[in-house]
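Supplementary Note 2. Why include the ligand at all?

Several targets in our set were suspected to adopt different conformations when bound, so apo predictions alone were not considered sufficient. For every target with a known small-molecule partner we therefore ran a joint prediction. The input for magnesium ion is given below.
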Amino acid sequence: MSTLEARAVTKIYHANGADVRAVDTVTFHVAAGEFVALVGPSGSGKTTMLALLAGLLQPDTGEVLVREQSLGTMRKADLTAFRLNHIGFTFQANNLVPYLTVRENVELMLRLNGTRNQQSRARATELLVRLGLDGRLDNLPSQLSGGQQQRVAIARALVHEPDIVLADEPTASLDTERAYQVVATMAGLIHEQGRAGIMVSHDPRMCIYADRIFQMEDGRLVRVLSARAEIEAFAHGLRPTPQQDAPAKPHERSMEPVPTP
Ligand SMILES: Nc1ncnc2c1ncn2[C@@H]1O[C@H](COP(=O)(O)OP(=O)(O)OP(=O)(O)O)[C@@H](O)[C@H]1O
Ligand SMILES: [Mg+2]
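The joint prediction is reproduced in token form.
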């Protein structure tokens, strides 16, 4: 079953008299249990694509389907409820609530969708610990580093066990080792729990955990990498594309140690 689907989705922004085709006729499926990395140059439409998938923006043409339900046909109130139950996301900015503690920020997501029991509180704590935030549970966001705040935002996106996980640059302010850990954790949860996940990342190394890589350019989905060898080559900076097919010898690459997920 396709959990997440874009059908010829186009989004045009109108700014200062000019039209920007931020997302241009994009079509794809993401299945349950699949983790996709969405990559592309700055301004290629990645954040806009995630906002369309989350139903935060309406496409000009085409449609987005989550669990085979078209978001465009839902009433606003239904869409809000649907999003709370089925979609988890982290934005480029963390958007943590400044006067709530780490634990409360994550539990907030459970409260919003009506889950309040002891078990779900335990789940929030377990997830925060898994993301390396034990000892920080009762701190306010202002008492955390940028990378720690980002991990809280990731916990908040996952805690209500959404079918769809959308993460926009979740590792942007993490050091390499921590970034690997966070993406490995996210990929592990998506695989174990059968979620469909899309992560935007500027760091190709983080794509090592992806099942497929979607490459965007100028609003278009120009390439999909799905073979394991292609994904590994991309993550190691070799980018086996028709334009740049330059196989490097292993000793010429600079590679970070990759922990096995
Ligand atoms: N609200 C907006 N109004 C007008 N144009 C916008 C708006 N948001 C984004 N754009 C334009 O749409 C295009 C795609 O933007 P988007 O934020 O989706 O790119 P991105 O791939 O996420 O980039 P980055 O890697 O820098 O985050 C860009 O040309 C951007 O300037
Ligand atoms: Mg962006």
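Residues 176-193 form the longest helix (18 residues). Residues 240-258 have pLDDT under 50 and may be disordered. Comparable summaries for the other entries are listed in the accompanying table.
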